Amino acid sequence: MAYVDGFVSGTGATNVDAYLDMSRACAVIWKEHGALEYWECVAEDVKPGELTSFPQAVMQKDGETVIFSWIVYRDRDHRDAVNAAVMADERINGFEADKIFDAKRMIYGGFRGAVEFGASAV
Prior knowledge:
Elements: E1 3-12, H1 16-32, E2 37-42, H2 54-57, E3 64-73, H3 76-88, E4 107-112
Antiparallel strand pairs: 1-3, 1-4, 2-3
């Protein structure tokens, strides 16, 4: 069963193109090192909730949008090996991510697959 790293972050609406450019470059690096899938999604139908929501989770500021991302691996060992290779890749240090989004407000974690049904790509 697959292993997934999941991320929720916010970025300024004017930074979305820069964020996606950075993400496309990162996707190449992760895929070259063995990640099975790399997804970045920009909020479209995401509203603040009364108790919880994506905007609240990332402490969304005025003029920001939410990004929902995930990377898929075969299993946790595979994830750990891929991420070690990515972090050793010199290209990963070439991004000015701190100018594109606030990583301090990013929520992330690793999840073992529990239910898997159908293709993830349409």
